[in-house]
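Sample log: AI-2E family transporter.
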Amino acid sequence: MRFRLPGHRDDAPAPAGDSAAQGAGTPAPDAPRTGGAATPDTGGAGPRPALTGEGGSHDPRTADHTATVAPAPTWQRGERFRTATRALAIGSAQLLLISAGVVVVGWVLGKLWVVLLPVILGLLFATVLWPPTRFLRRHGWPAALAAAIVLLVFLGLIGGLIAVIAPQVADQVTELADQAADGLEQVQQWLQGPPFNVDEEQIGQVVDQAIDSVQANASNIASYAATGASAVGNGLLNLVLALLLAFFFIKDGPRWVPWLAAQTGPRAAPHVAALSQKTWTTLSEFIKQQALVGFVDALFIGIGLWILDVPLVVPLAVLTFFGAFIPIIGAFVAGAFAVLVALVDEGFTVALIVFGIVLLVQQIEGNVLQPIIQGRGFNLHAAVVILAVTAGSSLAGIIGAFLSVPVAALMAVVYRYARDVFDGRHPEVAGDGTHTQVAGDDTGAVLTRGPAPETSRG
């Protein structure tokens, strides 16, 4: 098979070995090249020659193929393909290395989670306790005394809230227990009537089967109870450690950024200080917004319970407020308690109404209010917030869902800061043209604000 190259002259002398082919299959010099059809102009380079050979327009043999309309390959195609393949291989290797690094970092963090969890919770407590501590320190209070007073007042408020709630629960728990027994009898009578028509013997059999099932799984239930008790004990221990760490954070926290900036260098110190300030602000916004969401939940659910004359309005509202800080499970438990109390005290109809109120408020809070508030405060899209909560709950359960939004916000802060640096901007420079600098001597270092070099040269 042979194709003529573009530009080949038909009247050129053929090689000696091709004389037979020239006489048998090559058209005459004055023969039309395209079977009589006009050949389009090629920009002054003469008419485009037709392809010949197997499948060509002048192939005298019966061809199995026709001439392709795709352009002929150039010598650069292979070289460009090798270049693209090399770039793809390098990019794939870099991606694999980064993925391996992320996996290693995640594994290390998982091993250190027992230590990291109290630290993270202590930082979140410190975001709440730092504003009053800073107020006292600005008015001449010693750092340790200001931190201790604020922490004690915080614990006193929590204890006072428990002291207000506990008597209400204790006063009504007996009455609620009696009403619960009455409610079970009403359910039994309801099942015995139409449309179910379940007799008392069948109900007794169901109860006996439930008791037998509990007895048969007593060991598993005991194991679950022990696991739950261990989890509660670990939670209390982490809470105590978090409060102790929060005391040291609000007492010595202002020394952290100067110390960290002093370990880096004059060029990196402004970036360390600016990024630390941005991350701290992000954590503070997270606590404020969660408190706002919890307050909205507690307010509207509490108003609904009060209108329906459901008992334990204040304890249920407080439980709803604190449940907002534990996504998914917290809202579910708080809502379940409200519905259960309404069922026991007011009956099925009121319980159904309370269930509708709780479901409506939580759906609005979870799907509308919380993503919008957190998205605006963190400059994250609502879809990113929802995906972060989903990923966090899948990876680390309740704690992961609780920490997923601030972690996503911190990642966004770091990403935007690095992006601005790569684009030649100066995110460490404030609006007044100053940035943070490290000053001091061998005795210690402090942070000061001074004109940025780029601003002073401008």
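Observation: The first strand starts at residue 434 and ends at 441.
Observation: The chain is about 70% helix and 5% strand.
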